[in-house]
Every structure is written in structure tokens, then in C-alpha cells.
Design goal:
By secondary structure, the protein is mainly alpha-helical. It is 73% helix and 5% strand. Helix 3 crosses helix 5 and helix 5 packs antiparallel against helix 6. The radius of gyration is 18 Å and the shape is globular. The N and C termini lie far apart (45 Å).
Length: 221
């Protein structure tokens, strides 16, 4: 009986618990400030969005169990694929539809924030770590990963528009955006499955759930 209790208690070690607590506080604070503040406080909260993306990425990667060529290849592939897709999308209307970025996400290249490539890595990495815990075969995990990424974008969109991350032509989110997200997500996840790396990262898996909850609440409020 004691050994079972110890196993349950050890699901998260002290470092993982601390990291998840910090990320939860960041998300909760961001939610409160972005929804219930105004003026200077609201502006400061928006300014912290890029910092939050960078900080969250560094923190979840800290708990990656193995750093090798395949893992760094996944980072590079995801960053470049996501950024290239967004550059094409913004400048041509292909892939996602007609949209443009605001100034919240910082420095741009070809009208596209560099940070969006990092964000693609963050959400894809957290997703692939989460689905790794599913008791299913690779195909089911792969399809579940695409579904989760598209679901995340579904809840991101209303908040992103309201907060000025980006804007859609005529204010309407086209259905093609979600097809585009599914296609790019499928390409990125396929690379992660074809060249697998260690992805037993509980902090990353739980971070995806924190992000999903954050944007679901944003869509409500």
C-alpha cells in the first residue's frame, strides 16, 4: 500500500511541481490582467505576452529528458515550418486566409513576427508530449495531436483578435484557417513521429492543458 502511494506521489517531482505552479500563476495573472484591467496595467500585460511565450518555452524545454540531434532538428523544423507558413499566409492569403499581424508579438520579418515560429514550436512540442501519454497506437496519437492543435487554435482566434495579436479581413475567421492549421500541424507532427525523440515531459504536457484552459476562458470572457 505504501509503495503505491509513493508511486502516485512521485508522478511529479518537486522541480516539475514548481515549474507547473509558476506557469499556472503566469497564465492566471495574464488572464486577470488582460480581462479585468485597463490603461497602463493593460498595456504592460500586453507587453509581457512575448516574454511569456519565451519564458514558457525555455521552462518546458528545461524538462526535456534527452537533448540530441533529433530533438534540435524538431525545434528547427517546427520553427522554420511554422514561420514560413505564416509568412506565406500573411503575404499571399494562402494556407490560412487573409489576415495581418498587429504589433503585440514584436519584431517582424516579411510582416510576420519571428516569435510566431517559436510559438509553433511551443504548442507543437507540448502537444506531442501530451499525446505521448495516450494509451493508443501511433496513428491514433498522430490524429489526436492534429485535433488538439486545431482545437487550441479555435479558442486562440477570438482572444488573439480581441487582444490585437492579428486581424482577419472583414473580421471573419475563414474555415480555411482551420484546414491550414490541420495541414501545418500534421506536417510538423509527422516529422516528430518519423524522427522520434524522447518526449516524456510532464511539464510540457500539462502546459498544453494550461494554454487550452487559458484560451477557453478568454473566449468566454
Amino acid at each position: 500500500m505504501n509503495s503505491r502511494k509513493n508511486k502516485k506521489a512521485a508522478f511529479l517531482n518537486s522541480g516539475e511541481k514548481l515549474a507547473i505552479s509558476v506557469l499556472a500563476v503566469f497564465h492566471l495573472t495574464g488572464f486577470i490582467l488582460l480581462n479585468f484591467s485597463s490603461g497602463l496595467i493593460y498595456s504592460i500585460a500586453l507587453d509581457f505576452v512575448p516574454i511569456n511565450i519565451i519564458f514558457s518555452t525555455l521552462l518546458v524545454v528545461k524538462f526535456q529528458t534527452e537533448f540530441n540531434v533529433r530533438f534540435f532538428g524538431f525545434i528547427a523544423f517546427t520553427f522554420l515550418t511554422g514561420l514560413a507558413a505564416e509568412i506565406i499566409g500573411v503575404n499571399t492569403g494562402w494556407i490560412f486566409g487573409n489576415y495581418s499581424y498587429g504589433e503585440v508579438l514584436g519584431l517582424k520579418i516579411f510582416n510576420t513576427p519571428l516569435l510566431i515560429g517559436l510559438n509553433w514550436f511551443l504548442v507543437a512540442y507540448c502537444t506531442i508530449c501530451l499525446i505521448d501519454y495516450m494509451p493508443a497506437n501511433a496513428w491514433i496519437k498522430y490524429l489526436a495531436g492534429i485535433f488538439l492543435l486545431v482545437a487550441l487554435d479555435y479558442f486562440i482566434e477570438p482572444a488573439a483578435i480581441r487582444l490585437g495579436f492579428w486581424n482577419w479581413e472583414n473580421g471573419n475567421i475563414p474555415l480555411g484557417n482551420y484546414y491550414g492549421w490541420a495541414a501545418i500541424s500534421g506536417l510538423i507532427l509527422a516529422q516528430g513521429f518519423l524522427l522520434p525523440f524522447s518526449r516524456k515531459n510532464k511539464v510540457a504536457a500539462i502546459t498544453f492543458l494550461l494554454q487550452l484552459t487559458f484560451f477557453m476562458l478568454q473566449s468566454i470572457f
